[in-house]
Amino acid sequence: MTLSIWRYCHLTLALVSGLFLVLASLTGIILAFEPMQSALKPYQPEQLSKISLAETIGALRQEYDEVLTLKVDANDFVVANVVNKTGQGEYIYVHPRTGKRLGAPKSQHPIFQFTTNLHRSLFLKGIGRFFVGLVSFLLCLIAITGLILIIKRQGGLTKLFSKVQKDYFELRYHVIFGRWFLVPISIVAATGVYLSAEKFSLLPSSKIVHKPVEPDTEVDLSVLPQDLVLFKNITLDKVRSVTFPFSEFPEDYFELALRDKELFVHQYNGEILSEQYYPFTFLASQLSLKLHTGQGTMLWSIVLLLVSVALLFFIYSGFVMWRKRLRNSKMVVAQTDKDECTHIILVGSETGSTYAFAHALKKGLTQAGIAAFVSQINDYTTYAKAEQLIFLTATYGEGEAPSNARHIKTLLQSHTQKVPVQYSVVGFGSLTYQGYCQFAIDLERLLACIPNMEGSLPLYKINNQSFGAFMDWAKLWARATNTPMQIPPLEKKVKKAKTQPFKVLEKTGLNVDDTYMLHLKPKKKVKFQSGDLWEFVPEEGDRPRWYSVAKYQDKLVLSIKKHELGAVSQFLNRVDAGEYVQGGIKRNVDFHFPKSAPALVCIANGTGIAPFLGMIDENTKKIPIDLYWGGRTMESFSIYKAYIDNAIETKKMSTMNIALSQENNTKEYVQQLLQRDREQLAQKLENASVFMICGSIAMQRGVLEALEEITTDLLEKPLSEFEHREQLKMDCY
Amino acid sequence: MKTFFKGLLVLMFLGLLAFSQAPVETANYKCLIQLTNYEGEGAYVVVSILDAQGKYIETLYVQGDDSEWYRDIEEWWKNLYGIRRPDIDAIVGETVTGGQRKMAVLRIPVNKIDSGYKIRFESAVEDQEYYADDVEFDLTAENLKTKTEGKGFIRYVRMLPQQ
After folding, report:
1. Which residues are registered as beta bridge partners of A67?
2. pTM
3. What is the C-alpha separation between A8 and A20, in angstroms, rounded?
């Protein structure tokens, strides 16, 4: 409940203030350049903390006929209002030590003047200022609600800066940038509010009121101001401004505005006639101005510039997210009657991304001639002809239900299905979170207790929205429910890698498993690393295929299994040494050899071993590497044997552990080997060793389960913690 | 071609006019404007010379450079600045707020002193009052050495010939 309120607030506030914020950000971008530009001017020849006020006063009096005022501006430039020797009044930058004229202040550039007005008051004077102040205040609230949402999403304040779940670009970076810019945005918004509030006299007065003073008139009139001890003891960096005595009569006095106080000083004896400290509101107002405008500091101006740009990005990405969520929930509306459908797909999603899977599934079912109905979990009701219920649900934060699945518990109790149905739950989540698929787990437990319902397939968890994993589930589900269905591949725009010719150096024949090795060399030099993907597009307009590569002695080595129907694997099987094939390199930085791992545990099955052959070869530091590999028979391993033997001989790897599923009567899988070595592996996890997994989705699932069991049993920690520390790297298909 | 000559002629005429105007002799007067302790934004102050009939002759000094607010200085805007935009040498950017003082040097044409002219200080504050004759006195050598109390945002103005 609480979640949707925050989300709702965040969205409403943003929608209300959006247009104004766009304007404020755009003008903010321009205005950020003003302080940068002025900070670069050459009017600060010396450090002010090394020059006394007396020295500057002396120099100015020497240099000019008359000095009226002196000011140290935000850039630490000294500006003086003087009458020069020819009787002309001048307002100029002066050298603090010599008093020489350095230049004249230019009035604000018309562009900045125009932009400032727009930014501050939208050309509407008082009303405009009020509006801008209000929007600033709304921005504060947006930042606060945003913080709450991020905390909920990341599962606690302490995890604020932990890894962000993979999602579409706008959403992901809304979160990532959100946490970085939260503080600067809050500062800009709060100072904006403060400055506006001040304009409307909403704050206590920031003024100093001096009592009337009566300077001593019986004094030595020959004393020069530059000889006063007080002025000698004040350095220029402490000075805001000095107003010189109006006349030479002793009744007139110096007015000094220092950083923290104002002084009236007798012009002949240096006596302090009045001393008033600035109230807090004055200092707060000065600070607000400085923080909001970036006056005087290059670095902060750059931060302000970034904030303005970031705000535009947040508005854009927030808008995209809002449209997406709206569209996703709308798509549900136009479809056949729920009571006509046999297959009901129920979606629990916070951001709407799970809907893509639901629609793919619906498409698959429809193609198989099955009437399917998609709906959000909160709309759960009775379905007259239902046979199969499929729950596709994400988890929010630390095991909470997504907002459109929150009422399922009561709904299940109030709406009993008339006919017995089967159900299957697919959990979407991220291994980095402690409550990985927790809501899906809870949901399945809940369903198990509902009469008239029977599970068709145990809970299937999907990490990082892997479509491959979803296909795998669909296969299992189709088998379990006897549904002749295939999910169409996801229509996703993938950025194609730049292709170039690769020369085939060597190609082995097929082994017992129809697997072969391909050695390639790029014609032109191209950067790649073991774990990257080699992209191959069989024909123009075709879906690209990817193969995990090994960089073995500077060659690009692939291990490919020829599929009965796989046109691509067959095509590549027909190439001969010396030929060229067009391909591209797709960087896969998440699956590179970790730079600073004390040891590596590599787990693979089938052709998934390929990148590890390269990584082991790259192991020049000779850190311990244990390889676990699952295959069918000993014969399957033979094509890799030479690489492994060589690596063990050169001490580039420590152990090779092989699980064979078809060799003996006992079917052995790689996860069983992990269980066998559980103590040793637990210790490795504790020692920050990195586990890398490459191979099929099914193997990945088994391996993750085994690892989860090991960490909970032996280390009393969830696997997510290690994933969090980036000790788990996966590349499965 | 014809228009070109015409243009040239006009230009030459203007040039002649510029040269024929003898520079007016001015005298420097130091001027101290002390504001009252009001709350709010900095005050806009405009100092002008008026003739005996109250007609604007010349603007000596403008404090505040955000022209957005000039319209608020009504009399001056209606009779001078709003009609023709004279080039004013002494436009000072920063305004001063309540309780503060501002010093400036005014260059007063000598031929206007003791000749029946007046000097006027108008003041206005954003979203607050406007005082058309906050301080106003006859432009005499005697008055230019004294202190004059104000009626609005200005508490007093002190003048002093600059040596």
Report:
1. A82
2. 0.67
3. 19
A514-571 confidence digits (pLDDT tens): 888 888 888 888 888 898 988 887 776 677 778 888 988 888 898 888 877 777 777 8
Asked if residue B20 belongs to a domain, the reply is: no
pLDDT band of A1, cuts 50, 70, 90: very low
Residue B14 falls inside a structural domain: no
Task: Name every residue whose Cβ is closer than 8 Å to that of residue A374 and which is 6 or more positions away in sequence.
Answer: A331, A332, A335, A345, A347, A355, A358, A359, A362
Q: Is A126 on the interface with B (CB under 8 A)?
A: yes
Crossing angle of helices A169-199 and A125-154, in 10° steps, is: 140
CA distances from A231 to A54, A56, A688 (A): 5, 10, 63
Q: CATH number for the domain including B132?
A: 2.60.40
**B104 lies in some domain:** yes
| pLDDT average per 10 residues of sequence, chain B (163 residues) | 58 53 79 88 91 90 83 87 78 80 89 92 89 92 91 92 79
CA distance A520 to A507: 9
Please tell me the distance from the alpha carbon of residue A374 to that of residue A361, in angstroms, as a whole number: 10
Are A95 and A45 in contact by the 8 Å Cβ rule? The answer is yes
Instruction: Detail the DSSP E strand segments found in A588-654.
Output: 600-605, 625-631
Q: Report the C-alpha gap between A263 and B140 in whole angstroms.
A: 35
Nearby residues of A381 by Cβ (< 8 Å), 6 or more positions away:
A338, A411, A415
A248 to chain B, any CB pair closer than 8 A? The answer is: no
Contact A123 B68 (CB under 8 A): yes
Domain that holds residue B119: 25-161
The structural domain count of chain B equals 1
Q: What is the pLDDT of residues B133-142, one digit of tens each?
A: 999 999 999 9
Contact A69 B103 (CB under 8 A): yes
Q: Is residue B2 part of a domain?
A: no
Q: How confident is the model at residue A3 (pLDDT cuts 50, 70, 90)?
A: low
Do the Cβ atoms of A132 and A24 come closer than 8 Å? yes
C-alpha closest to that of A637 among A615, A657, A655: A657
Q: Which residues pair with A504 in a beta bridge?
A: A520
Mutation target for B interface from A107, A108, A242, A246: give the one with most B CBs within 10 A.
Answer: A246
